[in-house]
C-alpha cells in the first residue's frame, strides 16, 4: 500500500551531463557529451556480452598474449574492439590508449576530434570465468592547444584529465563518473537501455573499517605496508580491527571503497618494483574519482594525479580511499624505514 509511484522524471546520464554542460555556458560545445554517449554505448554493449558470455562461448583464452605478457581472454579482446570502434566512430577522439594494445591509436581525419581516451576495456580478467564482477575503466584528456593529437597529449599528469570513470558489470551494471565536479553513479535500466542517476554526489566516508589488499603478497611487501596492515589488524586502545575485503577486480574493490570507505591498496613490493596497476588507465581514473569523492590517492609518498607518465603502459603503486585511512598509511611511509 505504501509503494511509491514510479518516477516520471528520470535523470539519465546524458541528461545529467547535458545539464552540466548547459551550466558551464558557452565554453561547452557538447563534444564531451557526445563522447560520453559513445562510452555509455560501449558499456551497454560490453555488459550484454558479459552477461551472455557463458552461453555464446566467450569465456576462456583467445590464444593471444598482450603487451604485459598476459594471456588475453576472449571478452577482453571483444571489449577492446567494441571500444576502439565506437570511440573512433564518435568523431570526438584523437588518441586512444588501451591496456590491450601495445601502441596508441591515432585517429585520422575525418574522424579526428579533440579528446584522448585512455582505457582498460575489461579489467579484472582473472574473475571473468567465475562470473565475478569485472569492469571498464576510462580517463579522458583534451588535446593540448595547438596539438594535432600526439603521444604527448596522453603523457600528462592525471590531474589534467577532464573526466574519468568506470563501469562495473556486476549484479547490476553501474557507471560511475566525474567530469571534475563531484562523482555520480548511474545504474543501467536494462529495459530502457539507459543509465539512470541512482548515486548522486558520491562522497567517501572520511574513515572506513575495511582494508582491501592482496595479502597473498605479504612476503614481498616492504616494511611500511607491513607495519600499516599490522596496525589495522592489531589496533591499540581497544579499537576494533578492520575487516578484509578483496575481490581482485579493481573496479569492484574501488566501487566498494567509494561507497563504504576504507582503503584499497596495490603496493610496490620486492617482486613488483612498481606495483601492478597501470598508471594511465587504472591508477589515474580511480585516483581522479577518489579525489573528486573527497578521498586521497597516493603511491605512499606522492599524489598519484601529480605523476607525469613517461610511457603509456607504466605502472605505479596505488593506495586510495578514505582520507583518514590513507593519511595514516602515508604516515607509515614517512616514518617506517
Ligand atoms: P588485469 O588488468 O590483468 O585484469 O589486472 C588488473 C587487476 C585489477 O583489477 C586488480 O586490482 C588487480 O589486478 C588484482 O591483482 P592480483 O590478482 O595480483 O591481486
Ligand atoms: Mg587491467
TrEMBL record:
Main location: cytoplasm
Protein location: Cytoplasm
Organism superkingdom: Eukaryota
CDD domains per the UniProt record, alphabetical: FBPase (cd00354)
Biological-process GO terms, alphabetical: fructose 1,6-bisphosphate metabolic process; fructose 6-phosphate metabolic process; fructose metabolic process; gluconeogenesis; sucrose biosynthetic process
GO molecular function: fructose 1,6-bisphosphate 1-phosphatase activity; metal ion binding
Keyword terms of this UniProt record: Carbohydrate metabolism, Cytoplasm, Hydrolase, Magnesium, Metal-binding
SUPFAM superfamilies: Carbohydrate phosphatase
InterPro entries from the UniProt entry: FBPase_C_dom, FBPase_class-1, FBPase_N, FBPtase, Fructose_bisphosphatase_AS
Pathway, per record: Carbohydrate biosynthesis
Required cofactor(s): Mg(2+)
EC number: 3.1.3.11
Fructose-1-6-bisphosphatase class I N-terminal domain mapped to chain residues: 11-200
Pfam families xrefs: FBPase (PF00316), FBPase_C (PF18913)
Broadest EC class assigned to this enzyme: hydrolase
Every Fructose-1-6-bisphosphatase class 1 C-terminal domain range: 204-333
Catalyzed chemical reaction(s): beta-D-fructose 1,6-bisphosphate + H2O = beta-D-fructose 6-phosphate + phosphate
One cellular component (GO) term of this entry: cytosol
Subunit structure: Homotetramer.
Membership in a protein family: Belongs to the FBPase class 1 family.
HAMAP family attached to this UniProt entry: FBPase_class1
Protein name per its UniProtKB record: Fructose-1,6-bisphosphatase
Upper taxonomic lineage: Eukaryota, Fungi, Dikarya, Basidiomycota, Agaricomycotina
Amino acid at each position: 500500500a505504501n509503494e511509491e509511484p514510479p518516477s516520471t522524471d528520470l535523470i539519465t546520464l546524458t541528461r545529467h551531463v547535458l545539464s552540466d554542460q548547459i551550466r558551464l555556458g558557452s565554453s561547452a560545445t557538447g563534444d564531451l557529451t557526445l563522447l560520453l554517449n559513445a562510452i555509455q554505448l560501449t558499456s551497454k554493449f560490453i555488459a550484454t556480452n558479459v552477461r551472455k558470455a557463458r552461453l555464446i562461448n566467450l569465456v576462456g583464452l583467445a590464444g593471444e598474449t598482450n603487451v604485459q605478457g598476459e594471456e588475453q581472454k576472449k571478452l577482453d579482446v571483444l571489449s577492446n574492439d567494441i571500444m576502439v570502434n565506437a570511440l573512433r566512430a564518435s568523431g570526438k577522439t584523437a588518441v586512444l590508449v588501451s591496456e590491450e594494445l601495445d601502441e596508441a591509436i591515432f585517429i585520422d581525419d575525418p574522424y579526428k576530434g579533440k579528446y584522448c581516451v585512455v582505457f582498460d576495456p575489461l579489467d579484472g580478467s582473472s574473475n571473468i570465468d567465475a562470473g565475478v564482477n569485472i569492469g571498464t575503466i576510462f580517463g579522458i584528456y583534451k588535446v593540448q592547444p595547438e596539438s594535432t593529437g600526439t603521444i604527448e597529449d596522453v603523457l600528462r599528469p592525471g590531474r589534467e584529465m577532464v573526466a574519468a570513470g568506470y563501469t562495473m558489470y556486476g549484479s547490476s551494471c553501474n557507471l560511475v563518473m566525474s567530469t571534475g565536479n563531484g562523482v555520480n553513479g548511474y545504474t543501467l535500466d536494462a529495459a530502457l537501455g539507459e543509465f539512470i542517476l541512482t548515486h548522486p554526489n558520491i562522497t567517501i566516508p572520511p574513515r572506513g573499517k575495511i582494508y582491501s589488499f592482496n595479502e597473498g603478497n605479504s612476503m614481498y611487501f616492504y616494511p611500511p605496508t607491513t607495519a600499516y596492515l599490522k596496525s589495522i589488524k592489531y589496533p591499540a586502545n581497544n579499537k576494533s580491527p578492520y575487516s578484509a575485503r578483496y575481490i581482485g577486480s579493481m573496479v569492484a574493490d574501488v566501487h566498494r571503497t567509494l561507497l563504504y570507505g576504507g582503503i584499497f591498496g596495490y603496493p610496490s613490493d620486492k617482486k613488483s618494483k612498481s606495483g601492478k596497476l597501470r598508471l594511465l588507465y587504472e591508477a589515474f581514473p580511480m585516483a581522479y574519482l577518489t579525489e573528486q569523492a573527497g578521498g586521497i590517492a597516493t603511491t605512499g609518498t606522492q599524489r598519484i594525479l601529480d605523476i607525469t607518465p613517461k610511457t603509456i603502459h607504466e605502472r605505479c603503486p596505488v593506495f586510495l580511499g578514505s582520507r583518514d585511512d590513507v593519511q595514516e598509511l602515508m604516515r607509515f611511509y614517512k616514518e617506517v624505514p
